[in-house]
């Protein structure tokens, strides 16, 4: 891939993150053709481990886009890492505060500037006991209704072996298998122009998470359960 003009801080971030990922992972990457090289793009992914943002960033960067995550505001308060995250275009999410809407505004601004925004719709690492996708939060639906940007699903399996979210143990072995697959843009046309009511937002979100669940099932095998909610257990969401 030709060298991209991405600026000092982004180049620095690549030099820190990419070499360890190359040595640490044996990559089964598919579907990059579904990631357009330019233009506004919403990428949605399942979240299974603290390791998967690094894997996802590596995949998206090698697909030709800069990975701009919506991430917890707490990580931006870290003395050095927080400053770098701001410099490289990451977007803090202030959950449960009066500043919560700022993340959506920043994401809308990034999309209108033609950038790619990466979102974990679940908002956190899945709490489903076997790490299947759970029901998502409605931020991605709001973002799509506001911008109309294509929503491309990205399913992952394997990063949980690097950092196990149950035991919190880290395994840093060379060439650990990770699979990342991007699918075609999700067809959300039935909701074009609808009002952002709670019912519509949850329908859009459940549809997106259903696509991700089915993609994860294809990667890892077995039969995926219905989407899961921490508050209510498994829910029969198709």
From TrEMBL:
**Does RNA-binding appear among the keywords?**
no
Please provide the record's keywords in A-Z order.
Acyltransferase, Transferase
An example molecular function term from Gene Ontology annotations = acyltransferase activity
- Pfam hit, one: Acyltransferase
User: InterPro entries attached here?
Assistant: Plipid/glycerol_acylTrfase (IPR002123)
**Keyword Acyltransferase tagged:** yes
- Domain Phospholipid/glycerol acyltransferase, chain residue ranges per copy: 41-159
Q: Under which name does UniProt file this protein? A: Lysophospholipid acyltransferase family protein
Q: Which organism is it from?
A: Luedemannella helvata
């Amino acid at each position: 891939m030709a060298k991209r003009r991405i600026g000092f801080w982004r180049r620095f971030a690549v030099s820190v993150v990419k070499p360890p990922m190359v040595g640490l992972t044996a990559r089964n990457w598919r579907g990059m053709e579904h990631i357009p090289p330019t233009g506004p793009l919403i990428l949605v992914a399942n979240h299974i481990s603290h390791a998967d943002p690094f894997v996802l960033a590596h995949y998206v960067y090698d697909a030709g886009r800069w990975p701009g995550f919506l991430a917890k505001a707490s990580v931006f308060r870290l003395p050095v890492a927080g400053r770098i995250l701001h410099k490289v275009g990451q977007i803090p999410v202030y959950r449960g505060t009066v500043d919560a809407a700022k993340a959506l505004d920043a994401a809308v601004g990034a999309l209108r500037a033609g950038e790619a925004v990466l979102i974990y719709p679940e908002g956190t690492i899945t709490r489903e006991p076997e790490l299947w996708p759970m029901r998502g939060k409605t931020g991605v639906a709001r973002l799509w209704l506001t911008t109309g940007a294509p929503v491309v699903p990205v399913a992952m399996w394997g990063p949980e072996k690097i950092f196990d979210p149950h035991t919190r143990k880290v395994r840093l072995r060379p060439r650990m298998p990770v699979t990342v697959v991007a699918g075609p843009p999700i067809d959300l046309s039935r909701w074009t122009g609808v009002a952002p009511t709670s019912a519509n937002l949850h329908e859009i979100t459940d549809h997106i998470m259903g696509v991700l669940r089915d993609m994860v099932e294809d990667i890892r095998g077995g039969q995926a359960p219905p989407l899961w909610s921490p508050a209510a257990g498994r829910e029969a969401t198709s």
